[in-house]
Amino acid sequence: MKDLVIPICHLERLFDTCLWAEGPAYLAASDCVVWSDIPNNRILQWVEGLGTRTLSAASNHANGNTIDGEGRLVSCEHLSRAVTRREHDGTRTVLASHFDGKRLNSPNDVVVKSDGTIWFTDPTYGILTDYEGERADPEQDGCYVYRLQPETGEINAVIRTMVKPNGLAFSPDERRLYVSDTGVSHQTDGPHHIKVFDLVAGEKVQNERVFAEIAPGVPDGFRLDEFGNVWTSSGNGVQVFSPEGEFLGRIAVPEAVSNLTFGGPKNNRLFITATTSLYAIYVGVRGSTRRSAF
Ligand code: MG
Question: In order of start, what are the domains of the chain with their CATH numbers?
Answer without folding.
Answer: 12-282 (2.120.10.30)
